[in-house]
Amino acid sequence: MATKTHKQRRGFFGLFSGNTRDYQAEDASASDITPADTVLYGAGMTTVASLMASGNRKARTRQSIYDQWSMMEADPICSSALGLLVTAALGGHETNGDLIFIEKRPGYSDDERLQRMVEEIREDLLPIFNGAAFNVGYLAAAFGDAYARIYSDKGVGVTDLYTGELIRPPLVQPFERGSRTVGFAVYTGEKNFQRLSKTQMARVKMPRTQWVPQHGVFEKSIKLALEQDDIDALPLMPAMAGGSLLYPAEEPYNNLSASLLGLVGQRWIDSIDEQMLTVNLNEMSREQQKRFLESIKSMLTKSKEVAEQAAKGGKPILERIRHIIPVFGEKQLASMQAPNGGQTGRSANISIEDIMLHARLTAGAIGVDLSMVGFADQLAGGLGEGGFFRTSAQVAERARVIRVALADFFNQVIDVHTLQKYGVVFPASERPWSINFYGSISALEAEKQRTRSEGMSVGLLLVQGMQQLKELGADKKMMINFLTDIMALDEDQAEQYADNLARQPDDDDRGL
């Protein structure tokens, strides 16, 4: 019986043998490709060194890249944008607040043992996942990677996940074989180097959609052989930094910081209220003149120190500064007025248009409109009354990449749990559970409902139009022309509808 089944399967796959032979025939032998063929047609001159720079962005060390992202992570706009994306990705249950949902796959509903295993996994790991979900999701969005130290016991499974400061992304170096993460190195000090396996640590890996120029890729290219087909024979290589949602926003963020610094610095300077007064002193001796010059010098130095303290401390100067200068040959007290008519501060308002431009670019590069992070007044009038909902829906769509990375992360932890507790690790295609998120924010649901409602309205109008055409006695040709030219349907759809209506009897024929 088994032989017969095997022959039947071979007969089924034999239907595709012709396409298989064509595919194999098109596969060129690697030995037929020569360097001369590439050089003659403009290629071959580019080496891996081109990855060291990308336009104005030069190669940086791993630590400098993470320093930049750490600084951006603390910025109010960047932090709010990342938090909004992670919140949209996770969502949560309406009543109990669960963020992660471990559900049974329909294909394994007949196996009671697997069903019971999924229930036990849910009971054991769901509280742990809910506690770590937002933290690792936020760090992954900010740094491109996030890590969790897995604590497990034999026969019990995973008991805890540590996501604290000792395993922040700048301190962990993941190692890969191909694109599979196989180990980790943790640096918590000059003499504290620790190695961890994938059963001890799990990784949230964001998609590497943009290359971040960095040192180390040249050395990696020397050791890595792309001609090797066996992934297990590939060398163990460190993973490059990347995947951060903050990387496209680096340049606008730097411009925003510079613009804000200039604005705040100008405010500090404008807060200084300073004037010079002259007083009449006749017939000074040389000694008096010397003391007079020293007094002037000390006054100016004091004024400079006050301004420096205000700039360093970030606090405006609220008291008034007055300097008394002795003069000769005058009978009265005189005052030197400021250029703007004696008024303190500046005579015109400071424009913030450049700051708002850089802020919009920064938020937009991360994937969030500026109106979603505290600037609701920036909503464009062209979006209409539903502009806020449409902007929110775009955020929910952008957050899907975070869901994909988090689902893979939780599956890694569950694999360790099943290995320790049940002694088995399921292939990805045969897992009896699935990781689901119900983070569709209300704005996305409103957008879906609006789209569905508009589609239903169009469909009902189409049905009414075809019914009226039939009542008017239109023939098939007229109906096709009306549906294609007036209703803007495809010709195939119009013919299908016209044929269906032509076959239906009239109301009089049906006795109605």
Overall residue-averaged pLDDT value: 78
- Shape, per Cα inertia axes: extended
Q: Structural class, from secondary structure content? A: alpha+beta
Alpha plus pi helix count:
15
Would you report the number of β strands?
A: 14
Question: Portion of residues in helices?
Answer: 40-55%
List unreliable stretches of 5+ residues: 1-10, 338-342, 381-387
Radius of gyration: 35 Å
Largest sheet: 4 strands, antiparallel
* Strand percentage: 5-15%
Ends apart, CA distance between termini: 60 Å
Strand order of the largest sheet: 8-7-6-10
Q: What's the SSE pattern?
A: HHHEEHHEHEEEEEEHEHEHEEHHHEHHH
Organism: Oceanimonas pelagia
Protein name: Phage portal protein
Give an overview in words.
The chain is an alpha+beta fold and 512 residues long. Helices cover 48% and strands 14% of the residues. The chain contains 15 helices and 14 strands. It has helices at residues 2-13, 17-26, 35-40, 62-73, 76-90, 112-143, 217-223, 250-270, 286-313, 353-366, 387-398, 400-421, 442-471, 476-486, 491-503, and strands at residues 53-54, 57-58, 101-104, 145-153, 157-162, 172-177, 180-187, 193-197, 201-205, 237-238, 274-280, 321-327, 334-336, 433-436. It has a four-stranded antiparallel beta sheet with strand order 8-7-6-10, with no helix packed on it. It has a three-stranded antiparallel beta sheet with strand order 5-4-9. A three-stranded mixed beta sheet has the order 12-11-13. The chain is extended, with a radius of gyration of 35 Å. It starts with a helix and ends in a 9-residue tail after the last helix. The model is unreliable at 1-10, 338-342 and 381-387 (pLDDT under 50).
